[in-house]
């Protein structure tokens, strides 16, 4: 009788190897060995290495919380939740974002995963748009506002991964959000 295949183990092994070695350095043989399955199983189920990596990254990125939250009435509370959830996601999947940003330009077959990244950014933008429409944030492009909130956090993480800083260690999240609101909050008639 065939053994039940644990797709989560396959995805976990795939993402880990992809982060360690990039697209070219990741082999289906190593993924199969780490996941405890036969390499043929991977090709039957996913068709190709690119198909497997796309499925694994899609599954991983669809489970992040910072892009899924529903906006409330308190802009500061929502921003704190977005930032905390982003940091939680980064701690769990830090190497994935960095590897994707480095690998997608070199490997066109990975471009299919970019909608998963955009979906999370668009989720943050929806929350910010709600606060813009109620006057709690300045008007403007909500995606740009989302990038302004998330990008500095990503850069801090990337710098740590490259050995150029401490990353998010010691980050005062409340101060970070207050600073963001100073530039993006409503005009107070100064």
Features:
8 helices, single chain, Tetracycline Repressor, domain 2, Arc Repressor Mutant, subunit A, 68% helix, Tet_transcr_reg_TetR-rel_C_sf, 190 residues
Helix content: 55-70%
β-sheet strand percentage: under 5%
Known CATH architecture of the largest domain:
Orthogonal Bundle
Distinct helical segment count: 8
Q: Assign the CATH topology of the largest domain.
A: Tetracycline Repressor, domain 2
CATH structural class of the largest domain: Mainly Alpha
Structural class: mainly alpha
Distance between termini? 74 Å
Q: Main beta sheet: strand number and arrangement? A: none
Total domain modules: 2
Low-confidence stretches: none
User: How many strand segments?
Assistant: 0
What general form does the structure show? elongated
Rg (CA only): 19 Å
Q: What is the average of the pLDDT values?
A: 89
Order of helices and strands: HHHHHHHH
Oligomer: single chain
